[in-house]
Design a protein that fits this description.
Elements (H helix, E strand, L loop, with lengths): L1 H5 L5 H12 L8 H13 L3 H8 L10 E2 H11 L11 H14 L4 E4 L4 E5 L2 H13 L4 E3 L13 E4 L6 H8 L8 E4 L17 E9 L16 E7 L16 E5 L16 E4 L17 E5 L4 H6 L8 E4 L8 H9 L5 E4 L23 E9 L16 E6 L4 H8 L6 E6 L1 H4 L6 E2 L9 E5 L6 E2 L9 E7 H11 L14 E7 L4
Pfam family, one: LRR_14
GO biological process, one term: innate immune response-activating signaling pathway
InterPro entries: Disease_R_plants (IPR044974), LRR_dom_sf (IPR032675), LRR_R13L4/SHOC2-like (IPR055414), WH-like_DNA-bd_sf (IPR036388), WHD_DRP (IPR058922)
Length: about 500
């Protein structure tokens, strides 16, 4: 109720309308039907585009954890997100839709270490959505508890029945698929009709399915209206080249380790390529100038890297290949990605003189997460300051040399929730002890630092939200401190939210 009223203006008549609309629902607050009336009022009070987005959540099973970007990309494929402002992408607008549903308390965010990356729907809200979905024929759900009418016209199909009984298969077989716009299959791949039966399909989400060797994707290229294609584990590990026929395709999500189709550069409407397997990027990738997400891939040549210089809309980049990353042009390209929100580098091993990101000298102002693995910097870069990184929530990197003043700068980052640093102090013999001062790291909940020499000191009022501390202690330095000062005090008692401390005690030969 508070969320509903907060969205109303300070107009007495508007508030009276709210009171009159929900008054009957409050007469018996133990009655589920009356509670649904209140929830229904919140639903009908929303603009139509938000209603469609909310109803789409009825396509997912109870207690599902729904990936945020997955949901927004489905909304985009359905055409629910339209009317962007200059400089605003469809994804950004979709993110604002989801935030509004969260603010109305109709969707619940689920947080990881640094941001909400998924969401869920309360059981009572989901019951309402499923009921409204059936009434409006928005979506047809097949699960163990629903008996479908064969004569029902299917617009969107959600296959949630894991048992895949003969009766369920018969129900699906008797349905007309000619008007189906969207198929979301959770665990009932055997119930999926032949792809040739779909005429106007825009969404095919099979990400939770194992697509076995005897399952054919040969008609996939005929789904010419497809905007969203999500495929689970594929056997054999081969995507058909016919995917290049899907000229309206916006999102490609696939779980396999084979190569991408060689003609993927023809799909100029693509905004997201997400592959769990790090395939090499094919030639022609530079034609995909609308691409906003590219993960998880390898860049196998300088030529491909130069071609990727055209991808200026990237928000998410996840790469693993090391040969190209040490090239100066990679850092120069990063300087141009002004819309980058997340950079992830995995499986990277570098020599001491190949700290590839020292030439990265401009901060992307929208960056939220830097997960660089073993890649990083010789010193903390000048742009890693609160003024330039107001939204940075997660930092994982290698820093060869970190000073107390650098640590203080990190402590002033206003949104930082997760900090994971590997330092070169242990091998360089740098005697550094970091002090977290009062008021520093106001949002930090996870701290992991490895490779430094002396232990932390936490002052009263530092890291008020820290829950997890993971640290390395070198036995030799610890004993020296204890002998010289009669002991040492880390100040752990000053960390009021601390729940878990993990320490690794190492003995270095002198």
């Amino acid at each position: 109720m508070a969320s509903l009223l907060a969205l109303k203006g300070r107009d007495k008549l508007e508030w009276y309308k709210v009171c009159d609309s929900v008054g009957t629902g409050l007469e018996n607050n133990l009655d589920v039907d009356n509670m649904r009336k209140i929830l229904s009022f919140s639903y009908y009070d929303m603009p139509s585009h938000l209603r469609n987005c909310l109803l789409y959540l009825s396509m997912f099973p109870k207690d599902s954890s729904i990936d945020k970007s997955h949901l927004i990309l489905l909304w985009i494929a359905e055409g629910f997100i339209q009317g962007t402002k200059p400089g605003q992408s469809l994804f950004e607008l979709g993110e604002s839709y989801l935030n509004e549903l969260i603010n109305r308390s109709l969707v619940q965010p689920k947080y990881n270490a640094y941001d909400y990356m998924s969401c869920r729907v309360h059981d009572m809200v989901l019951d309402l959505l499923c009921s409204l979905s059936r009434e409006e024929n928005f979506a047809t759900t097949l699960n163990d508890a629903v008996d479908l009418s064969p004569s029902m016209k299917v617009r969107r199909l959600s296959l949630q029945n894991s048992t895949a009984t003969d009766a369920a298969a018969l129900q699906v077989a008797n349905m007309s698929m000619e008007q189906v716009r969207s198929v979301v299959c959770q665990s009932a791949f055997k119930l999926l009709p032949a792809l040739s039966s779909f005429r106007v399909l825009r969404v095919l989400d099979l990400e939770e399915c194992n697509i076995s060797e005897d399952s054919s994707l040969e008609k996939l290229g005929n789904l010419v209206h497809l905007r969203y294609l999500g495929l689970g584990e594929i056997w054999p590990r081969l995507l058909p080249e016919e995917i290049s026929n899907l000229r309206f395709l916006q999102t490609l999500v696939v779980d396999y380790t084979g190569n991408l189709p060689s003609r993927i550069g023809q799909l100029k409407d693509l905004i997201c390529i997400r592959v769990n397997g790090k395939p090499d990027v094919p030639k022609g990738i530079g034609n995909l100038t609308s691409l906003e997400e590219l993960s998880s891939i390898d860049i196998d040549s300088i030529e491909i890297l130069q071609e990727m210089g055209n991808l200026m809309e990237l928000r998410v980049l996840d790469i693993g290949n090391t040969d190209v990353l040490v090239h100066r042009s990679f850092a120069e390209w990063l300087c141009k990605l002004r819309k980058l929100e997340r950079l992830r580098i995995t499986e990277a091993e570098f020599e001491d003189d190949e700290l590839i990101l020292d030439d990265w000298d401009v901060a992307p102002k929208h960056i939220r997460a830097l997960e660089l693995g073993n890649a990083g910097f010789s010193r903390l870069p000048d742009w890693m300051k609160p003024l330039f990184l107001p939204h940075l929530c997660s930092l994982e990197a290698y820093v060869e040399e970190l000073h107390q003043e650098d640590f203080k700068i990190l402590g002033d980052l206003p949104a930082l929730r997760s900090l994971d640093l590997r330092l070169g102090h242990e091998w360089a013999g740098l005697p550094r002890r970091f002090t977290a001062a009062a008021g520093s790291f106001p949002c930090l909940s996870y701290l992991r630092m490895k490779g430094y020499v002396q232990p932390f000191e936490f002052q009263q009022g530092a890291m008020p939200k820290l829950e997890t501390l993971d640290s390395t202690f070198l036995w030799w330095e610890m004993t020296q401190i204890a002998r010289n000062s009669g002991g040492y005090d880390l100040g752990l008692r000053n960390l009021s939210s601390l729940k878990l401390v993990t320490g690794y005690v190492a003995q270095r030969n002198r």
